[in-house]
Design goal:
Layout: H1 6-17, H2 25-32, H3 36-47, H4 51-69, H5 74-80, H6 86-97, H7 101-106, H8 112-121, E1 160-168, E2 174-181, E3 192-196, E4 200-207, E5 210-220, H9 225-229, E6 236-238, E7 243-245, E8 254-258, H10 272-286
Parallel strand pairs: 1-8
Antiparallel strand pairs: 1-4, 2-3, 2-5, 5-6, 5-7
């Protein structure tokens, strides 16, 4: 039977309760009664992220909350989550959320537009011909994810197909956002991504060789703007193990089951309205 490392659950609870305090690695390791080295290893094994990266992700989630629920300046929000430099806070926020703090704060005024557009469409998996590369690959690959390296051989293609099924542990009606990310956390633009109008199959074609993490979340039709911008209660799914795409090697079918969030789940940092808008732009091009 694999180790469950129940003491890590206690550390996760400790982090959530003390997120406003300094949380150096030594303090977290001491709470679990491990050496920093051993603690880092088992934490990453169980959660998927190094402990300090997990902490910084929760603080960025708090920054998103403060931007929308308070009138604090962007500088003050950064200070409250441990970023002394406005420039550093802005650049890290934009890198991981996809928009600047100021843009994220303003997005509360327009988040209903892409969501309403998707609600009117309701079904978008059928109208597109398979000749377009299958309908579900409707977020263009992230530019930095397109590379061939030395894997390309004459007469063969290094590109792969990643496909599978998304299910849910409870009844769900709404939008499913799914993507291949370079880290085991939904932050930054996915290398490949799409939106699904229902549970069922997904398909990414022309995936370049590399290591990816398959992650998904769901936005029900009943959610409001704040729920979408701060997706702390949305159903989500992730494969903790990395997905390796190698030239000429078929990728096994993937299965994801959307579940309610757990304390050890990494926060969803990428702006969901940003992904919705990218999807709608791409969809209009392919029509």
């Amino acid at each position: 039977m694999p180790e469950t490392y129940a003491e890590i659950d206690g550390v996760i609870d400790f982090i959530h309760r003390n997120i406003d305090e300094p949380l150096p690695l030594e303090r977290l390791a001491k709470h679990a009664a491990y050496s920093p080295f051993h603690f880092t290893r088992i934490f990453k094994q169980k959660i998927g992220l190094p402990p300090l990266y997990f902490v910084s992700s929760l603080r960025l989630q708090k920054a998103k909350d403060l931007l929308l629920r308070t009138n604090l300046s962007v500088r003050d929000v950064g200070m409250m989550v441990g970023q002394q430099s406005l420039g550093t806070f802005t650049s890290r926020f934009a890198e991981r959320v996809g928009v600047t703090p100021a843009e994220f704060r303003r997005s509360v005024q327009s988040v209903d537009q892409p969501f309403d557009a998707l609600r009117e469409m309701r079904q978008w998996n059928e109208p597109l011909s398979p000749l377009t590369g299958r309908p579900s690959q409707l977020l263009p690959p992230h530019p930095s994810g397109i590379h061939l390296g030395s894997a390309l051989h004459l007469g063969s293609s290094p590109l792969a197909v990643v496909e599978g099924t998304v299910r849910a542990a409870e009844p769900f009606r709404g939008v499913i956002l799914i993507g291949l990310f370079t880290k085991p956390i939904p932050e930054g633009m996915p290398r490949y991504g799409t939106l699904l109008s229902s549970l069922g199959s997904f398909h990414f074609a022309d995936v370049f060789p590399g290591t990816y993490y398959l992650l998904a979340t769901a936005v029900s039709w009943e959610m409001n703007a704040m729920d979408i911008l701060l997706p702390q209660a949305t159903l989500r799914a992730r494969n903790k193990a990395p997905l390796t795409v190698a030239p000429g090697v078929p990728v096994p079918p993937q299965e994801l089951t959307l579940q309610p969030p757990q304390p050890g789940d990494p926060p969803i940092l990428i702006s969901l309205p940003l992904l919705m808008n990218r999807f709608l732009d791409r969809f209009s091009i392919l029509q």
